[in-house]
Specification:
Helix content: 25-40%
Radius of gyration: 20 Å
Largest sheet: 8 strands, mixed
Strand content: 25-35%
Number of strands: 18
Bound molecules: zinc ion
Shape: globular
Structural class: alpha/beta
Mean pLDDT: 94
Order of helices and strands: EEEEEEHEHEHEHEHEHEHEEEHHHEEE
Number of helices: 10
């Protein structure tokens, strides 16, 4: 069976104009001008969907999602429940990289891997980082390098915490050893082999990453700091780091007046207005994670819960403010897919996976296709 999405305003993420997109099995087999002939084998069943000129974008790639649920920073009653697969589809997310955070004791790599399988069973594409905030790392095999090499779903280590009161107060040697495990494991297994680092509010900022780059032979792409928009000074440091070739990740968390954070939309607007390489930035959600506020003594005073929906909200914020969709989209699609070597993801092109999202005029999700099935349909 062949499926055709007719009359789609395609953003691949670059703008391609009005196209018909042909899908066989889980793959895109043709992207042609709307209404043009496309040769198909005789007798094949063709199912047509008219997209009515709406925008068709690649499914969003969320490289930082607490698929098991996160939290637990004020006792077990503050652990957050695992988001349902439906939450990702509703948010236009078709590829997810799960992880463990502060609680890598009552949550385990086993549970995380089961979470990956659960999402895959539901039609999402899913991977995970091994480890969590702490060192020595929580792993399945006892070694992050072996986890990366032996476990299909593991693409690197994360979210290892630095510059945070909840971190293991890592030394440079420990960071270097872990980054080396990522790099070498990635080479052996043909994976990203990336060290995804949680950044806290600590004044040391990105110092450990700068030292690691200065004092080792490890390539810059191995170090992947996230939450870099949580403080103005930290974001400035992150912008400098991209000049050395590092990929940076901003988090689409809610912003409160006076907390010093920059919204993901503001961070991306600033980045896109600079002359920094367009492919070195991504946006992730921290979905399912706890977004805690601590007092000076490190006690949690309140918390919110992250959601994948914040990705689409950020994208809409950008386009509403006049940023072209094709300029904003790479940070949500092709940039993370290519840095993290999620083959077939993040673009609408022949040979790529048919992970596709139809957007309504107001930027909300009409439908999501994954592996050529319609998984989610907005009734409106
Ligand atoms: Zn984090």
């Amino acid at each position: 069976m062949i499926q055709v999405l007719r009359n789609a305003q395609v953003y691949a993420p670059q703008s391609l104009g009005l196209k018909d997109v042909f899908i066989a099995g889980s793959k895109i087999i043709g992207v042609v001008d709307a209404g043009c002939e496309f040769e198909l084998p005789d007798g094949v069943e063709v199912v047509e969907h008219d997209v009515l000129g709406r925008q068709l974008i690649p499914g969003l790639v969320d490289c930082h999602a607490h698929i098991t649920g996160g939290g637990g920073e004020d006792g077990a009653s503050t652990k957050v429940a695992a988001p349902l697969a439906e939450t990702y589809f509703a948010a236009g997310v078709t590829s997810v990289v799960g992880l463990l955070g502060t609680d890598d004791i009552t949550r385990s790599t086993e549970e995380l891997l089961a979470g990956v399988r659960a999402l895959r069973e539901e039609g999402l594409s899913a991977w995970c980082w091994t480890g969590g905030y702490h060192y020595p790392l929580t792993t399945l095999t006892g070694s992050p390098r072996e986890d990366i090499v032996h476990i299909d779903a593991v693409i690197g280590v994360g979210e290892l915490a630095i510059s945070d009161h909840r971190s293991s107060q890592l030394t440079l040697d420990e960071v270097l050893r872990t980054a080396s495990d990522c790099h070498v494991g990635g080479l052996i297994a043909r994976k990203a082999g990336v060290l995804h680092l949680h950044l806290g509010d600590g004044k040391r900022g990105l110092d450990l990453i700068r030292q690691a780059l200065e004092q080792s032979e490890l390539p810059a792409r191995v170090f992947h700091p996230t939450h870099v928009n949580r403080q103005r000074a930290l974001f400035n440091e992150a912008l400098e780091l991209t000049k050395l070739g590092c990929h940076i990740d901003v988090t689409a968390f809610p912003i409160e007046d006076g907390d010093g954070a920059i919204s993901a939309a503001d961070a991306l607007r600033e980045y896109l207005a600079s002359d920094l390489p367009g492919n070195l930035i991504s946006v992730s959600s921290d979905g399912g994670g706890c977004l805690p506020v601590f007092d000076e003594q490190g006690r949690m005073v309140k918390y919110d819960v992250g959601t994948s929906a914040s990705l689409l909200e950020t994208l809409n914020d950008l386009t509403d403010s006049g940023v072209a969709l094709e300029r904003a989209l790479p940070a949500f699609t092709s940039n993370p897919a290519e840095h993290l070597r999620l083959d077939g993801k993040g673009r609408i092109a022949v040979g790529y996976d048919a992970d596709l999202v139809v957007l309504k005029e107001d930027g909300s999700v009409v439908s999501v296709f994954t592996a050529a099935e319609t998984h989610y349909k907005n009734k409106n």
